Amino acid sequence: MDSTPPSKSIFILSGQSNMAGRGGVHSRKWDTIIPTECEPHPSILRFSASSSWDTAVEPLHADIDVSKACGVGPGMPFATALLPHLPPGSTIGLVPCAVGGTAIKEWERGEKLYEEMVRRSKEVAGEGEIKAVLWFQGESDSLSDDAASVYKMKMEQLIRNLREDLQLPSLPFIQVALASGGEKQYFEKVREAQLGIQVPNVVCVDPMGFSLNEDNMHLTTESQIKLGKMLAQAYLDNFYVSA
């Protein structure tokens, strides 16, 4: 009987501020409230900026998105919701890469953020299986027609690039459609692009209508918990194959 524990199920968390997490952030300060769905668990690990695996604690992106106040994001509630569905003894590894205020052009191959995401992903690839990328970005591209008009093309290229650079041609992507943004017409254009991406192994979840912080841009802690559960269900429904 094989008693070898399962390897880590690794998930890349990337995009901009709503993936990095601003739940509970008010006046640029996090309220430090940690809901049950975000409490540390010995089987949920986080790959730190210094390349060590540690027990995951909020804010997951505190040493990644360093120029902003980070709070609760969707990563911990995602992992908490997913863990009971995995085989006994499983470990989830979260790899935070999101940086607030970033546009899709900053995630092109050759740009610092993209290359850092690739580097961190390659670092962990030998320690488990990269199961999916969770991607929440686009608010910065909803500020102009020029950016919104090319969003779909650039997002599809990012998916192709990352799959190629990680040598994972079928790597699942779970994208989050915008729940907030800039100018309404450009916001709608980015959402349309996100919901309309037709690339294999890419699904999109839609948190439209979820409650926002007083800045009308960032998801509240409650909304981040709902989003995390939504992402976990999307992964289970579309990509999870039980052992």
UniProtKB/TrEMBL annotation:
Gene: LOC120283316
Domain Sialate O-acetylesterase per the UniProt entry, residue ranges: 8-236
Name recorded for this polypeptide: Probable carbohydrate esterase At4g34215 isoform X1
Swiss-Prot/TrEMBL keywords: Hydrolase
Provenance organism: Dioscorea cayennensis subsp. rotundata (White Guinea yam)
Superkingdom of the source species: Eukaryota
Molecular function GO terms recorded: hydrolase activity
InterPro entries: Carb_Esterase_6 (IPR052940), SASA (IPR005181), SGNH_hydro_sf (IPR036514)
Glycoprotein among keywords: no
Pfam families from the UniProt entry: SASA
